[in-house]
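Continuing the batch. This is chain 6 of the set; chains 1 through 5 are on the previous pages. Same settings as before, nothing changed between runs. Recording input and output for traceability.
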Amino acid sequence: MTAPDTVRALAHPATAEIRLEGVLHALSDPVRLSIVRALAASDAELSCSHFTLPVTKSTTTHHFRVLRESGVVRQTYRGTAKLNGLRREDLAALFPGLLDSVLTAATAEETRLRPPGNAQGVS
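Output for chain 6:
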């Protein structure tokens, strides 16, 4: 008798299945964009619990699912934690410069919209 498979796998689109409109939709939401910005600023995969988001837990789950199903992030289970990493290489191969352009534009917008005298922000 073999041991039961204890690995929980999540469905991700293959690189060839990732579509521009899905990626743009995923990045168009401010909460999802903040997740992507945090992942881009980190050298490591981040657990879902790492993020403090202004939404409920179920809405947070929805945002991560949209990012995963659009091909923006890859999620893997490590024990009970669900880790998230950007699919930079896949996105760069399909849409050269898109992710970096969106991240640069988001930083510029944050700077532009920041109240005078407030030097804090997410990079």
